[in-house]
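Box 3.1 A note on notation
Throughout this textbook, protein chains are presented in two layers. The first layer is the amino acid sequence; the second is a token string describing backbone geometry. Keep the layers aligned when reading.
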Amino acid sequence: MRGSFVLAGIVAAAATAAVCATPTLARDDSSKAQQAAAKDQKAFIRTAIQGNLAEIDIGKLAQQRSGNAEVKAFGRMLVEDHSAANEKARQVAQDLKVTPPSRPSLKERAGYAKLALLRGATFDRTFAKHMVSDHQKDIAAYRAQAQAGAEPTAGMANDVLPTLEKHFGEAQRLKTEVAAQKR
């Protein structure tokens, strides 16, 4: 009889340990998911700020290098809109305790350097093509963040999407217009 009590005690202790361990495992998984989400948000906001800085620089370059009034106007729009978007992004970075980048990524700086070598109609065509491609990528990233991300980055991405979509449409129109320019 004593053996039955000991066995019952062991079974009860094992069951209690199993029940107590399950929430710990769930908490560990939840904590890992939260850490991964926070890491994704921080990466997104850094990339968003770098992208805004790149668009501002390229917008200024368009105003300097182009002789086309439409390209210059598009460049002004980039500077204005991406400066405003960057203010939102910097606020989110502050909320997330992320030090905002102070310049574009290496890849973005390399793209700027290539554009900076061009002038006139060649600049216009290359710039317009770059703006179409760049805004396609940005829209995809911002949509993904708006749909699957967490606050505050999801809200910021959702707020900026209409501007990016407007830029994309204007870039497509501009690309068509400058394609007909003489070399």
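Residues 5-15 have pLDDT under 50 and may be disordered. The domain at 37-179 is CATH 1.20.1260.10 (Ferritin).
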